[in-house]
Write a structure and sequence with these properties.
It is a single chain. The protein has 317 residues and is of the alpha/beta class. It has eleven helices and nine strands. The strands form two sheets. Strands 3-4-2-5-6 form a five-stranded parallel beta sheet, with helices on both faces. It has a four-stranded mixed beta sheet with strand order 1-7-8-9, with helices on both faces. About 2% of the residues have low confidence.
Amino acid sequence: MKRTLLRQMLEQFGVQDVAMCLYPVTPFDDPDPRPLFFYHMEKAGGIAVHSCIETAFAMARALTGRSHSYLRFHADDDLTATDLADYYGRRLDACAFVGKVGLQTFGMHENFSQSWRLMTVLRDPFDRLTSHYFYLLRRGLRPGPASEADFIDYVSDWRNRCYHLRMLCRGTDADRSLESIRDEALETLDTFDFVGTLDQLEGMLLNVWSVYGLFPVLTQKIHANPHKTNQFEHLRDDIYELNRLDKELVDSIAANPRAPVIATPEKNSNLNLAPYIGIIVDHQGEASFSGESKAIPTDAFFQRLHQQPSSLNAFLS
């Protein structure tokens, strides 16, 4: 969490459930303007990134009349060659691609006829694996039920070992050495403009907002996660050892996140915001996340803020 001026104001007036507070904090005169291509790692905050970009772009289209074209798709979408040719021919302002080890990983951006600023978010390997495992069970994509033996079988699959490294390669298989995969992944990361970890997500997106000058977006903390469990916590060290090279990568990026500009909280009381602010809220108490977003005039936002609401929900009423 970065103590930006807007976040401080929200806290001062009692809003208690802000997850991310995104706006262009540090102005950036981009010497090499390029659209954003986001390589979405599964269960590493990608939906949050997508929701924020989608909201900011929808506001820009509605309020400025400019296109702000955004596309998101998956490696395992049922897309024809015609569909893909249509995608590749578009002039986009941002694109998000959810790759899949064994199908399509790094390199998708090269199919488009434009150059990009590349971005990705990494996550602690144990936390990501457990989150993805239970996600597969909930969606019926793995038979289950959850058990230690089944979880170990899942994490031992070559496609899940050192997942981040594999996703940053153009292709891997069960026989390729992890050292070779690591070396290629590190070379790949040198081509990325934005790299951070899930724990640093707000700071990383503040960098993105500062580079692209996007409309402000506030997101709400998810009020309940009934799927979170510590069932396999006792296996954490074993999973780290199995994914040692992946863990080293994530720790390295956590210590040294990358961006063309690192957003720095304001040193004065001058808050400069666009005329509209986007609010994304979570529907409390639901078994799965279901969000809602709304753009409200900035002056109306501050009028409501001075009434000292405790939740972002109040701004949508």
